[in-house]
Design a protein that fits this description.
Helix content: 40-55%
Number of helices: 3
Oligomer: single chain
Radius of gyration: 21 Å
Strand content: under 5%
Order of helices and strands: HHH
Largest sheet: none
Length: about 70
């Protein structure tokens, strides 16, 4: 029962963060709210509920396109 109540709080914080917070940041937010729990417990509950944060897309530099049919200068 306690895990279900904690999971509801986790989901609420996760949605407020626009699905970007991982388990440790959610753990810190729970501590600020006054909820006592461990970060491993938060991670386990998130894993069981299949809650995963969105990851940033890796920056890829646009470099010279040398695969073209144009004449070389």
């Amino acid at each position: 029962m306690a895990d279900l109540a904690l999971l509801e709080q986790i989901k609420e914080i996760f949605e407020q963060s626009r699905q970007t917070y991982g388990s440790y940041r959610i753990f810190i937010a729970l501590r600020k709210q006054g909820t006592r729990c461990g970060h491993k417990r938060v991670a386990r509950l998130m894993r069981q509920a299949e809650i995963r944060p969105k990851t940033k897309q890796r920056f890829r530099a646009a470099t010279t396109d040398s695969n073209h049919n144009l004449p070389v200068a």
